[in-house]
Design a protein that fits this description.
Blueprint (H helix, E strand, L loop, with lengths): L7 E4 L2 E6 L2 E5 L2 H13 L5 H8 L3 E2 L3 H10 L2 H9 L19 E7 L11 E7 L5 E6 L4 H15 L4 E5 L7 H9 L3 E5 L4 H13 L11 H9 L10 H6 L10
Parallel strand pairs: 3-4, 5-8, 8-9
Antiparallel strand pairs: 1-2, 2-3, 5-6, 6-7
Helix pairs in contact: 1-3, 2-3
């Protein structure tokens, strides 16, 4: 008969529990809620997203139940959720090409609180295959600003073969049409915006809760959070799928 302690090992004075071949660090009971709170507040994640950030590294009994308790008492989430409006719909199906940097989804997030730099929006670029996100604060949704951000994107990653945007958005202007034509980029329009853009807006409002006019300072952190968060549709984080290695965060062992 297998002893209940056989799954536990000690390495470097730390206790680990072996589950399905993975050695998970056993978190002392008096530290569990603090660790859960820290993982949640890194991006004010949902219950499942918070669990995904912990479950592969730490062993905490009844983890989901404890996460639910933590989030139900999160004042920032309670206040931010009350302010969220109608949720954006899902994208209509478009034939998917399983290549990184082949297709981008683009959208504007905002308007947000005006800043002392006059930023009011975030220009969002999402790689269709890897779900990797690039975020650029902008002062408007003008074609000129959008094109300048795509040029900045091109300087590092070159052009995608196609760009997908919402119908009736700024991306359907003559300026964008001419730009896409000159760069040999196919432009497709869909009826709704990006679901992840709505998620980004929720996170940025929570990160900048102390002074909403300073939200632009948190855009790099928001981009890091989105790209290091596990995505069920790809069974990895966007960073891992695009770069090939796991993003190292300050909480990693």
């Amino acid at each position: 008969m297998k002893n209940q302690h056989d799954d536990y090992i000690i390495k470097g004075d730390l206790l680990y529990k072996s589950i399905k071949g993975n050695n998970l660090l056993v978190v002392p009971e008096d530290m569990q809620m603090s660790l859960i709170k820290s993982a949640h507040e890194e991006g004010y994640f949902s219950v499942k997203q918070t669990e995904d950030r912990l479950i592969n590294e730490f062993y905490i009994p009844k983890l989901m139940q404890k996460i639910e308790k933590c989030i139900s008492n999160c004042i920032t989430c309670i206040l931010a959720n009350k302010k969220q409006g109608k949720q954006e719909g899902e994208l209509h199906p478009i034939p998917r090409v399983e290549l990184p940097l082949h297709s981008y989804h683009v959208d504007h997030l905002g308007p947000l609180e005006s800043t002392n730099k006059n930023y009011k929006h975030i220009f969002c670029v999402i790689d269709s295959f890897t779900k990797f996100v690039w975020l650029y604060p902008t002062k408007s949704t003008s074609s000129q600003e959008g094109i300048s951000k795509l040029e900045l994107q091109k300087s590092v990653f070159e052009n995608p073969r196609r760009i997908i945007s919402a119908k009736g958005s700024a991306f359907n202007s003559k300026e964008f049409y001419d730009y896409f034509s000159s760069e040999s980029i196919q432009h497709l329009s869909v009826t709704t915006g990006l679901p992840r853009a709505n998620m980004g807006r929720a996170i940025i409002s929570k990160l900048s809760k102390d002074d909403p006019t300073q939200w632009f300072k948190f855009v790099p952190e928001l981009q890091r959070i989105l790209n290091s968060t596990y995505q069920r549709s790809i069974n990895l984080t966007p960073f891992e799928l695009l770069v090939g290695v796991k993003m190292r965060g300050k909480t990693d062992l």
